[in-house]
Design brief:
Blueprint: E1 3-5, E2 12-15, E3 21-25, H1 28-34, E4 39-45, E5 49-52, E6 56-61, E7 67-72, E8 79-84, E9 92-96, E10 111-113, E11 129-130
Parallel strand pairs: 3-10, 10-11
Antiparallel strand pairs: 1-2, 2-5, 3-4, 4-9, 6-7, 7-8, 8-9
């Protein structure tokens, strides 16, 4: 069963099965949330994940108008994941792949979203579906 955690270890999770999708996101909000040019998101069915600890939450409106709620550690501030009211993402908790304790190497994306915001020094990943916005 894949497991993950925040930097300080006070917030942990585990999930069963495989991610429904693994998406590399270039949206401006993911950049701000992670401090990186992109993030790798694992879409995990909500019934398949168990979070231990007490995450803090922050709500924001994404450029598409969709509301997102982030879950992060109140001690070390590591972003664990997010959820949204966007129809195509409602059944999932969107985990940050970088928080996996093991197996990050197997979290290869199947698509890139918000490529209109992809930084010019980063090339398209060949073989992945490309979306200007959300799929």
């Amino acid at each position: 069963m894949p497991k993950g955690s925040c930097l300080c270890g006070k917030l942990t999770y585990e999930f069963s099965g495989e991610p429904a999708k693994t998406v590399l996101c270039h949206c401006l909000q993911c950049r701000k949330l992670t401090g990186s040019a992109f993030t790798t998101n694992l879409l995990i069915p909500r019934d398949n994940i168990q979070i231990k600890g007490s995450p803090k939450h922050y709500d924001f409106i994404q450029e598409t108008g969709d509301k997102f709620t982030t879950s992060f550690c109140g001690e070390c501030a590591t972003l664990i994941g997010k959820e949204t009211d966007a129809e195509s993402f409602k059944p999932f908790l969107i985990l940050e792949a970088g928080t996996l304790d093991e197996g990050f190497e197997q979290a290869k994306p199947d698509s890139e979203i918000f490529v209109k915001h992809r930084t010019p020094w980063l090339e398209e990943i060949k073989g992945l579906a490309q979306f200007e916005g959300k799929p």
